[in-house]
Protein NDRG3
Amino acid sequence: MDELAEHLLFVLSHFGLKSVIGFGVGAGANILARFALAHPEKVNALCLINCVSTQAGWIEWGYQKLNVRHLRSQGMTQGVLDYLMWHHFGRGTEERNHDLVQVYKNYFERRVNPTNLALLIDSYVRRTDLNITRELDPTRKKEGLTLGVPVMNITGALSPHVDDTVTLNGRLDPMNSSWMKISDCGMVLEEQPGKVSEAFRLFLQGEGYVVRSPRKPVTPTTPKVIVIRN
């Protein structure tokens, strides 16, 4: 995961970007957090959705290793598909949004390369801890290691990653971070895009990146008079 984070330097260089505002989901959020820790001068702010800051536990490691073996030997099996759906949406998605579930199931079954997915999962499950801590003592804050950029940490109330985001929130500086749990959804971008976009807009506005454009003055016009004759 650290190597993937370092690859972002080439992306910024290619597009001529001096710094960016990062928006990442899941593994992408973890990669952006690593990039911000290694190159804080390149990141202005972060919006992280379902971000995990710790290494994989034994249960996750076991499930993912089994998924990797199935993907490499049998392709997209029903067991792997069920795990992917749970990983993205949590439980009860079928009742909440049947059409969305079918779209993702068809995508995983027909569009995803099993070998490439196995490589990505294997890389993600081998991730290391971010090794960040919250230091509340103002005299020792410089000694602690945490994300120094503003962070908006988002998850869904029905997401299987709620505890992971709570752990991350406990390791961030409360002065420049916020935690948001959106109700009635597991995958916030797909199920509650309006709430996410509004929260992101307010977050950027609070950091001074979004300026409200003044409304154009309304030019008074003479109202039309309709004459009704008997």
